[in-house]
Amino acid sequence: xxxxxxxxxxxxxxxxxxxxxxxxxxxxxxxxxxxxxxxxxxxxxxxxxxxxxxxxxxxxxxxxxxxxxxxxxxxxxxxxxxxxxxxxxxxxxxxxxxxxxxxxxxxxxxxxxxxxxxxxxxxxxxxxxxxxxxxxxxxxxxxxxxxxxxxxxxxxxxxxxxxxxxxxxxxxxxxxxxxxxxxxxxxxxxxxxxxxxxxxxxxxxxxxxxxxxxxxxxxxxxxxxxxxxxxxxxxxxxxxxxxxxxxxxxxxxxxxxxxxxxxxxxxxxxxxxxxxxxxxxxxxxxxxxxxxxxxxxxxxxxxxxxxxxxxxxxxxxxxxxxxxxxxxxxxxxxxxxx
Amino acid sequence: xxxxxxxxxxxxxxxxxxxxxxxxxxxxxxxxxxxxxxxxxxxxxxxxxxxxxxxxxxxxxxxxxxxxxxxxxxxxxxxxxxxxxxxxxxxxxxxxxxxxxxxxxxxxxxxxxxxxxxxxxxxxxxxxxxxxxxxxxxxxxxxxxxxxxxxxxxxxxxxxxxxxxxxxxxxxxxxxxxxxxxxxxxxxxxxxxxxxxxxxxxxxxxxxxxxxxxxxxxxxxxxxxxxxxxxxxxxxxxxxxxxxxxxxxxxxxxxxxxxxxxxxxxxxxxxxxxxxxxxxxxxxxxxxxxxxxxxxxxxxxxxxxxxxxxxxxxxxxxxxxxxxxxxxxxxxxxxxxx
DNA sequence: TTGTATGCGTTATCAG
DNA sequence: CTGATAACGCATACAA
Lengths: 338, 338
Fold this sequence. Notes:
alpha/beta; homodimer; 3 domains; Rossmann fold; 338 residues; DNA-binding; six-stranded parallel sheet; 43% helix
């Protein structure tokens, strides 16, 4: 309510010094600084960020675009971003990317363009070239998380490597009849995660010289998805694999649940390995490949922050790899003697 | 990049008419409107929302405060809010309420006060009186979701009623040895949901004249929480209850998982009922009390929108009840003959 | 219907 | 170290 002018008057200084005293940018005599601070406190003064933005051109606000809020990976990344942003004094404007093309375009042409964000973080979104252009036209630093976007700095795990790691672990235990229960290839609105995880799985089998006909069951990236796919897959004891590489932990958990329901003991009757290290993984004893989405979010913020402060130190155009590691628990063991 | 002035010049009109033509607020001759629109399109013009905010005092932006992003209920509410906001042309600024008091206070005194939001939605946050005052001092409409906040319009389900409904269902099936596995009473940073659900549970037993010593197992509101508590609770076949009322579906799912692991068949050996209707509930056949968090979010947005547009039609101070209903699936049945 | 002029609350650029 | 003063980009009251 109260403006800088009032504070200045009360402190007996000009608006300019009041501004300087409060922002701490320039040198102000301790006495003046003191008086301004007191006046501001008494009046309950707080800067109008809109006014400040108007003149500085910076909003202290970054936009985050994500297709989902309600999925573990995305929510986790979001939390990481939010924490890092708050720490830096920035607001976070959240945009959920709609699946309908029309609304999606509205997001880009209406919301994103309002000059309200100093930077953009895209999580798990694959951007069309035209969309990338649009973002670049904003002349604001942008980074992606979850997969490579040509033209934009992105950070992600090597999905192919992740599933290869998981598969190798099973092969190392002696498994040869392994099936990948992963994301539907047609339904990857996000990156080609599904395809890449499938590819890594197959590469590992190829590397080991293992045949793999009928090696893939597509489903949705969720516990129920894994449950249903596993129910179908495991129904016939004859054709049943000895191990499953799940596309993510949620699928793995669904598969374990299905196995239990069918009376199959995990891991002696069936080994299951996931990808993510979901908070529920430990409870299910799930062996998995850990990625830390929260940290990915924090790092993304670091990146845009640096790009904003450092004299336009351009972002590295290359994708940045996030480390992953295998967490062995109790859902995997050697296959049963056939 | 391009300003209103440039558009005006290109269209051969004044800034004022250009502004009017674009906002559509006042009457502009069709010809002029046409020319302005064309000029704007050619230049790729888009309003500077900061400049507009500075003069109008409205930001087209609402703040959302929530303690968690990564929990089903909260994420779901958030999605509902986001969708409704986007539809109305508003941005959503997300604030995660930190658990540390110091940072929490920073949120209120630094972030919230920057005059950047036209309204506030608090989800699952219990506000201290001083915090309520602070929000009221902003003179912006505010609504809460998830529990009553004195002084602020809130929408929530009747938690006591929800667990009473769940408990009555079990009693109706003939159960008398029922335990509530719910949220820890010390750990309810959000509302007193835990306590209220426990109270409803006990009230239902009292109503039916059923004794209930040792009727409560506190745990965390999560699948692993339910799992661990149920593992301990069900270990001893002698003292085992015939039914569990879970504080939420996640706990219920953890409990079902634990039961299965212990060889207890659900529901013939143990009935379990939850609260929420979590997306995983169906897969576990979980009988539960449904609440629709997404709709709660949408309704909250409706409310603040109305308060913002309608000539300061004040928000109803009373809490608004959200309907709930019992969804009977396959996790509940009559108790086994003792 | 249109144009002119003013102000929104800051920060930044100068002199002093 | 401090004080005028000019932007920043837009919306609106008022006059035409």
